[in-house]
Amino acid sequence: MSYQSWDWNRIKLLEAACSATYNYSTLLRASADHFRATGIEIVSYRHHPPLGAIDRTNGVFIYTEGLPDAWKKRYYAEKFYKIDPVSRLAAERSTSFLWSDTSSLIKLREGEAWYLEQLANNIPGDGLIAPVYGPHGRDGYFLLGLGKPDETFTHLEIKFLEHSCQAIHSKYCELVFDKLPSNTKLSPRETAVLKLVSIGSSSSSIADELNITANTVDTYIQRIFHKLDVDHRVTAVLRAQAIGLLN
């Protein structure tokens, strides 16, 4: 694959498209056009809402293009996500990597070598895995495939694609936050209580720290549970972190 210098102007076009986007469908359409223009045959974008987030799942595939339909069906039907070392490695690394290098970059667990064989047999050519990062732990990754054997990426091409992926992910996170409930607010005292809960303090320890009674602490905690729609201290902390209340 070979990029000409003018192709870097596509980054500016992509960023402009992202800035003008106010819904998911327009963003995904702009993303598809961008990757198609740069010669990428296979795209898979996976988003990982943080622990405690209202929209938390095992990972959400936001957008896929070029992957064989049979492979996509098998991935869920046979629960490949449980033995997918590519996804696991993407969550652990801060830099991009080729999926063909996965086995040399991470110690494989049971079933993962077999999964990589299936991946190689079902998806032609090599591909780039680009981790992306968002606010409050909203991370994810892109899988970008050339769809052709014996082709790979240059260092400059990888930087181009990393920038593209991060721009798309940042805009997607912005759209997610616009859709999530935003009226949850904790009082200064509730925030102080929850911060102490987050470091493992008991009600009696919190009471001593804040010079209030343990019963008052429990009252604050129940108010926090109600506001965050949770029923457990750990879940309350995770939910608050996920929506930025403990920053």
Description:
- This protein has 247 residues and is α+β, with helices and mostly antiparallel strands.
- It contains eleven helices and five strands, in the order H-H-E-E-H-H-E-H-H-E-E-H-H-H-H-H.
- The chain has helices at residues 9-19, 24-37, 69-77, 85-92, 102-105, 112-122, 155-179, 188-198, 203-210, 214-228, 233-242, and strands spanning 42-48, 60-65, 97-98, 127-132, 139-145.
- It has a five-stranded antiparallel β-sheet with strand order 2-1-5-4-3, sandwiched between helices.
- Mean pLDDT is 87; it is low at 2-6.
Topology:
Blueprint lengths: L8 H11 L4 H14 L4 E7 L11 E6 L3 H9 L7 H8 L4 E2 L3 H4 L6 H11 L4 E6 L6 E7 L9 H25 L8 H11 L4 H8 L3 H15 L4 H10 L5
Antiparallel strand pairs: 1-2, 1-5, 3-4, 4-5
Helix pairs in contact: 1-2, 1-7, 2-7, 8-10, 8-11, 9-10, 10-11
- Low-pLDDT windows of residues: 2-6
Structural class: alpha+beta
Any idea how many domains?
2
Specify the CATH homologous superfamily of the largest domain: Transcription factor LuxR-like, autoinducer-binding domain
Q: What's the overall average pLDDT, rounded?
A: 87
Task: Specify the number of helices.
Answer: 11
Q: In whole angstroms, how far apart are the ends?
A: 43 Å
- Report helical residue fraction: 40-55%
Shape estimate: elongated
Tally the beta strands: 5
CATH architecture of the largest domain: 2-Layer Sandwich
Q: Record the strand order, biggest sheet.
A: 2-1-5-4-3
Give me a quick take on this structure.
The protein has 247 residues and is an alpha+beta fold.
